[in-house]
Specification:
The chain is 33% helix and 19% strand. It is of the alpha/beta class. It has a single domain (2-282), classed as Phosphatidylinositol (PI) phosphodiesterase (TIM Barrel, Alpha-Beta Barrel), CATH 3.20.20. A hairpin with a 5-residue loop joins β2 (43-50) and β3 (56-58). α10 (256-265) packs across α11. The radius of gyration is 18 Å and the shape is globular. It starts with a helix and ends with a helix. The chain binds SN-glycerol-3-phosphate (G3P) and calcium ion. Keywords: Signal.
Length: 283
C-alpha cells in the first residue's frame, strides 16, 4: 500500500529543503520552494501555523516580525491580512549576497496553494506545532492531505517536536509517516548541565526503550546535530536509532563538511537550506 511504498522510498537518502531553498531565497515563498524543487530536493519542508480564520499557512515563527512587514502573532490575523504582507523584502536586507528585486513583495502561502502548485512533483515534509496552540490544526491538516490524495500517493511526512500532535495525527490516519523531532542542548543552567529534549533523555542516557517508545507511532527521529558548535549526537546515536527501526533525519545542515560527516554516520536524510550542496555531495 501507499505507506509501505513510501517507507521503501524513505530507506534511500532524503534531501529535505528546509523552508524551501531558504539559503537562497525568502523562506516559505514561491521563490524558495521553486528553487528547492529545481535543485532536486526530495521534500519541501513546511512549518505550519493557522490564521485567525483557521487557514493553514506556511510560516516558521509564531510572530510576523522576522520574515514579514507585519506585527504580532500569525494566529491573530485573517488570511486576507496575512496575504497583504511582504514576506520577501526582509531577505534582501538580511542576505545581500543573494538579494533579488523580485523577492520584494513575495506573499505568504497557504498549504492549499503549495499543494495546488506542485501536486505530486515533490513531496511534503510538514511540521506541526503543539496542539495547545492550534487545537484544530491536526484535523484540518489530515483532512487537507486526504482530500488532495497525498496520503494515498505516499507524498507526505509529518514532523513535530510535539508528541501530542503526532499521536493525534496517528489516530486520525495511521498511514502517514511521522518523524519525532528532538532538540538536544548542552547549556548550563543554575542546576548544572541541561540536555533538554522534551521527548527522550539526553543522547548520553538514551535507551532502546526510549527509541522504541517513539517507534510506536513514528518512522523516524529528527535530531539537531550541533549546539553552540559542539556535536550533541554521534554515529552511535544513529546506529542505535537504526537498531530500533527508526530513520534519522538530522537538522539543519548547511556546510559541506558537516553534510559529509553525517553521510558517513549513515543518517537517512538531512534538512538543509542549500539543497544543491547536499545534492552534489550525496550523489
Ligand atoms: O523541522 C526540522 C527543523 O526545521 C526544526 O527546526 O526551528 O527550523 O523548525 P525549525
Ligand atoms: Ca521546521
Amino acid at each position: 500500500d501507499a505507506l509501505e511504498q513510501q517507507l521503501d522510498d524513505l530507506q534511500g537518502f532524503q534531501i529535505i529543503a528546509h523552508r524551501g531553498a531558504s539559503g537562497y531565497a525568502p523562506e516559505h515563498t514561491w521563490f524558495a520552494y521553486d528553487k528547492a524543487r529545481d535543485m532536486g530536493a526530495d521534500y519541501l519542508e513546511l512549518d505550519l501555523h493557522m490564521s485567525a480564520d483557521n487557514q493553514l499557512v506556511a510560516i516558521h515563527d509564531d510572530t510576523l516580525e522576522r520574515t514579514t512587514n507585519g506585527e504580532g502573532n500569525v494566529k491573530d490575523h485573517t488570511l486576507e491580512a496575512l496575504k497583504a504582507l511582504d514576506a520577501g523584502s526582509w531577505f534582501n536586507q538580511a542576505h545581500p549576497e543573494y538579494a533579488n528585486d523580485d523577492y520584494a513583495g513575495a506573499k505568504l502561502l497557504t498549504l492549499d496553494e503549495v499543494i495546488d502548485r506542485y501536486g505530486d512533483s515533490v513531496r511534503y515534509y510538514i511540521e506541526t506545532k503543539s496542539p495547545d496552540r492550534y487545537p484544530e490544526l491536526q484535523r484540518a491538516l489530515v483532512e487537507t492531505l486526504e482530500a488532495e490524495g497525498l496520503v494515498d500517493a505516499g507524498a507526505v511526512v509529518i514532523q513535530s517536536f510535539s508528541q501530542d500532535s503526532l499521536k493525534q495525527i496517528h489516530e486520525l490516519n495511521a498511514d502517514i509517516p511521522l518523524v519525532q523531532l528532538v532538540w538536544y542542548s548542552t547549556a548550563e543552567d543554575g542546576d548544572g548541565l541541561v540536555e533538554w529534549t522534551g521527548v527522550t533523555p539526553a543522547p548520553s542516557e538514551i535507551t532502546d526503550a526510549d527509541f522504541q517508545a517513539i517507534a510506536d507511532y513514528a518512522v523516524g527521529i529528527g535530531p539537531n546535530v550541533t549546539y553552540e558548535g559542539q556535536d550533541v549526537i554521534d554515529a552511535g546515536f544513529v546506529d542505535q536509532a537504526h537498531a530500533n527501526g527508526l530513520l534519522v533525519h538530522a537538522y539543519t545542515i548547511n556546510e559541506p563538511d558537516a553534510m559529509q560527516r553525517l553521510l558517513d554516520w549513515g543518517v537517512d536524510g538531512m534538512f538543509t537550506n542549500f539543497p544543491d550542496r547536499l545534492n552534489s555531495i550525496a550523489e
